[in-house]
What does this fold into?
Amino acid sequence: MKKFQKLLLLLLIILGSSVTAFPQVLKPVKWSFTTKQISNSEAQLIFTATIEPAWHLYSQDIPPDGPVPTSFTFEPGPEYKLIGKVKEPKAKEEFDKNFDMVVKYFADKAVFTQKIEVLTDKDFVIKGFLEFMCCDDSRCLPPDEVDFEFRVKGNPDAGKKTEAPAVIAVDTAALVPADTVVASAVADTVAQDTGEINPDEAGGLEEHSSLWALFFFSFIAGLAAILTPCVFPMIPMTVTFFLKEKDKVKAKFQALTYGFSIILIYTVIGTVVAITLGANFANFLSTHWLPNILFFLIFMFFAASFLGMFEITLPSWLINKSDSQADRGGIVGSFFMAFTLVLVSFSCTGPIVGAILVASASGQVLEPIIGMLGFSLAFALPFTLFAFFPRWLNNMPKSGGWLNSVKVVLGFIELALGLKFLSIADQTYHWGILDREVYLAFWIVIFTLMGFYLLGKLKFSHDSDLKFISVPRLSLAIITFTFVLYMIPGMFGAPLQALSGYLPPQSTHDFDLNKIVRDNVQVFGGGGGMASEKPTGLCDKPKHGELLHLPHGLEGYFDYEQGLACAAQQNKPVFIDFTGHGCVNCREMEARVWSDPRVLKKLREEFIIVALYVDDKTQLPESEWITSTYDGKVKKTIGKKYADFQISRFNVNAQPYYVLLDTKGNTLVPPKAYDLDVENFLAFLEAGLTEFKARQ
It folds into this structure.
């Protein structure tokens, strides 16, 4: 997945850059790899770079905000141990106008060497990859990655020594220069020693689990769609069509074709969304005000339809045309029967399908397809099963007013979920319309009205009379009012961890009792003085602090350079939090992991926190604009600046993403992604502190 993301990013750079464009075949640097045997127990790995005229290759020693340095990553193994760092020839040191700074680079040819100790008596192979960046006087190519392989002779004397341990001790500084993406032996070693998850593995696990979660959510939505007035009455009608066929085997085959056709139609819809939108459109969909306001209005439109304000219908000629084709029989007839069902049920299933597509379109390419597959599988299930077992129809409940009640309940849920899109736009652009307590007030009112509706105390014009309350309806009412009571303490600052991913951040809450207590302690607890502009524990007033805030009363910075400078002044490691206003997983991490007293204590006392929002739309002053080394475009907002920083520095574009740095900006341990295990997060912080102290 990581290599795929790099290739995709490289393709976008090449096709979309307005400043620099290069053919994919351009390779200004060619690498060769040889092994030199120094002795029985030692060997030297030689990396030779042949550089085209007018181009230059960068050193391993590059300032943090400069070009990507040359770096080497080795696959670990019990056969060898690295001795020291990768050595490089003396580099030229000149001012580079591409990056507006003095950098070290090589021209024509550069030879890098790495000494190893041979720990086995058998011949073996060392594999790994190197990453580098090259530029000429006016342009730069995106960072490139080359795999390497060295064949090394075994040490005849190794058999007389104690067998090497499975996990070798690796010099972190030797393997991971300042700007190298950590996906190396060091990552594996730290993962085994501390319980830390390798970033690649974490991303894979998160992606895998999120796809399953989307599938089950969509499956439940498909089951809910069946219980709508447009769909439920059609079950006996369509099943009866198959029962007319005298040949039972043929009837069951047509029923299967009917079910698979429903799945095919909806999955094709998901595929079209994946192809036309896909992952490349994710940032625009998830952060820009236009699509979020559009989605909000769509949800409100569908909710009004569910509540009975009007009916959403397709043109009758389209439905009639499909219905006429269904009379042909056979496979074609079964397919058009399925297509007719999709069209007829649109007014009820459209809002649900739209919700799934909106939820999945901002993810990876597979997500819309998985979402529609889960929905259609559940949607097609009853039609196929009742066609196979027609006696079940006798036990099926009759259509009636209860179907309309299901539709109205779904309308209330649509109202509540639609607010999320307005909230994302509100946070990203700092409109201040939908703060946390306002959002909660809407939800409390919506679900209270839903509870009264379930009890029959609220009635719409198209509802039938409710003579008594059934046990299932009473149970739903109890669950609804319980949910309302759970939310009420949130109006006074309760964290509501179960909803943390769906609510605006705690920092937007005006009447937060916990915050009021903390502020009073800071003002009066430390001697009764007035609160200063500089928060306690920080070096100076944080830039953008009037717009951005940290959770749980933590203090920190929202500008990388300012945070790094304070870390150097206080001699503390830096905790980088790549986050976003629209990041659901970020809010969950803050509510469930950061809130742990042990985590809070470490973050508050032992780190300088720097939260970098990758989706904030606040314009930066012109003096702080940057020109991307990837796409050559000028980044003028906080979000674009730090999204580019995350991609160019760590080759990652996902949040949350946590990085621990020393006072010079060097990575201490492998970065960490989304992981709700508090013990893993504590181990990650402790590993960073241990490595920081070791470098002192």
Residues 27 and 468 are 78 Å apart (CA to CA). The mean pLDDT is 75.
